[in-house]
Amino acid sequence: RMKEKSKSIAVLDREGGLSQSEFLELTNRNNLFTNVSISCLQAVRELQFSGRFDEAQVIIEKVVEDTNSQSEKLVGYILLAELLNKWGSCMPSYTIDVMERASLFADRAVVLCEDMISSHAASEFNDINEILCSSLYWKALNLASVGRLGGCETWSTKLAFDEADKAFSYMSSIWKSSRDNDLRHIQGSMSFVKGIISFCRAIALEKGYLQSSECEGRNTNELKAESLAQFKSAYDSFFSVYGSLHNQTVKAITMICVCCKMCGDRDEALHWSEEEVKARIKLHGEWHPRTKLAKETLQELKGGKEEEEPEQEDVQEISPLDFPPERMTLEIDPFELKDVETLRSAMRMFADLGVVERFNIPKHNLARFVLSVKNSYFDVNPFHNWRHAWSVSLASFIIMTQTSASRLLTPVEKIATLITCLCHDLFHPGVNSDFLIKSAAPMALEFPAPNVLEHMHWNATKKLLQSGSDCDILINANEDEKQKVLDLVHEGIMATDMHTHHRVVDGLTKRIQTAQSKTTNVASPAEAAYDAEEEEDRRELMRVIVHASDLSGQSLPREVAYTFGRGVLEEFHNQSMRERMESLPQTAFMQGLHDPLAQAKAQLGFLHYVLQPLWQKLSTLLPELEAQYLRVVERLDEIDFDNLESWQGRHDGLKG
């Protein structure tokens, strides 16, 4: 039943096939930055959780010393200088141990970079001077923090500031000679570093670590005012280049707020604190450690008064019986439902699966669970939002109730599948794990690489279901059953990583062969392929259902498929723009998606190479899903590179 290839697909074949291949193959994701980033993140995570600096130092040294590549060492040194700075800034206060190590790595990066330049061994980098500036940037910031904390064994307070000044001057001289046509971002970075050095000097002077004579006769108030002026200058530069939702802009906002607070200007500090909280929530989400610190600062400035909780739906008013059973169909448009309808229908999924009765789930707990899940998705995400999670859950529900899978899975697997689908993208930040690793995001420090997001989603799900929580829908399950469900949910969420796709499709191929080899009469191909008495068979089927449901968007009615497709394109485009603005290695298949042809190639490639084989094989085992497979084929047939004007699935709102 596989369709004959179109001319447009032939074009993709000639160009190498699926452009998103690194999306599916874990081995294809790795590059110089990603490899070293993962190692550094793992090392810093060990330091973070153990608190044993001596042991962590051995681990960190091993990361960069185990390679013979100078380029990898250089990237490792810079990343560790940055990571340790970020980790320290997420703590209630910096520690001298962390900042001394951060400074040492930055210093090593500068020395190695200079050696590579002098020996002409920097061919792997497009602009080695930019790498040198990055090393000097972190050296200046980290040494200023060392001075602020009173110095250390390697650098006294005065020496730390002297070296920070030298690093700043060196960096400035390189940047001032830059041929970059737009120097605003360079000016912003220079102002920010200068502001940090003045700010740290003010703290050191205030605490008695420095004398006024060591600060060119300036007093604390003068240094604070100087730092505030520099941070405002940095903000103006960054805002003019990047806008408000960028890490550099938000860092400047943070420091303006801190300086205003130190200078006693409470009203101004309150204004900037509110701006910081809004920006960090939109940029990073509620989970980000710096978002939490920003909210604490705002609460303190407001006099310790708790922020009012947004009005939420009354859980007593949410009942599955209020959602008609005839509407539980894949023909429904998730974007036309009211929020309360999505909650009622989600509860109905549990009820109609029979698991509410089987596990004696209290209505209050179920209502709190689905409401908490909904509120754990960010509406700002074009694709990874509550409507996606709800739609994925509905697809799994339909498969488990209207196909022969209903006779193969036990109640334990059914409830685990539904929980997995509802929770599989909790707190998704709108970027992928590779971006979090490359940008050294705090989330990548907290959860293991390379599957940072999947580990985070599972951690959030586990918290919702922990004993004592009013969201615990497994409260009345016996201990063994609850653990089995949790194990399956963990397995299911981890399996949503796209690198499992080929394994799922290959598994379906083998199951089809098994079904075709059997001569005994069975009720359906799936029941010939999977043995309901074998736990591993049921677990594999559950993983298939979760994966297919996660990729069900293009199997839905035309307009729904278009909306989900545009959401994916927009999210990829947004990540690509952030990678470019933050000078990160760019993800190839996310670039240029403002161009309709690039959109068409990305969408057609995913439909042909990924979705069509999956749904063709799944509908062979579960013939009840034939209509979904045919819809995937319809979406595929609509894309003609020679007639893009007729393709209604394109996204006309993306700007280059």
Automatic annotation (TrEMBL):
Pfam families: PDEase_I (PF00233). Zn(2+) 1 binds at H388, H424, D425, D550. It comes from the Eukaryota. Residues 307-654 form the PDEase domain. GO terms for biological process: signal transduction. Keywords: Hydrolase, Metal-binding. The active site is at H384 (proton donor). GO terms for molecular function: 3',5'-cyclic-nucleotide phosphodiesterase activity; metal ion binding. PROSITE patterns: PDEASE_I_2. Coiled coil: none annotated. AMP binds at H384, N385, W386, R387, H388, D425, D550, Q603. Gene3D superfamilies: 3'5'-cyclic nucleotide phosphodiesterase, catalytic domain, Tetratricopeptide repeat domain. SUPFAM superfamilies: HD-domain/PDEase-like (SSF109604). Zn(2+) 2 binds at D425. This is PDEase domain-containing protein. It comes from Hanusia phi.
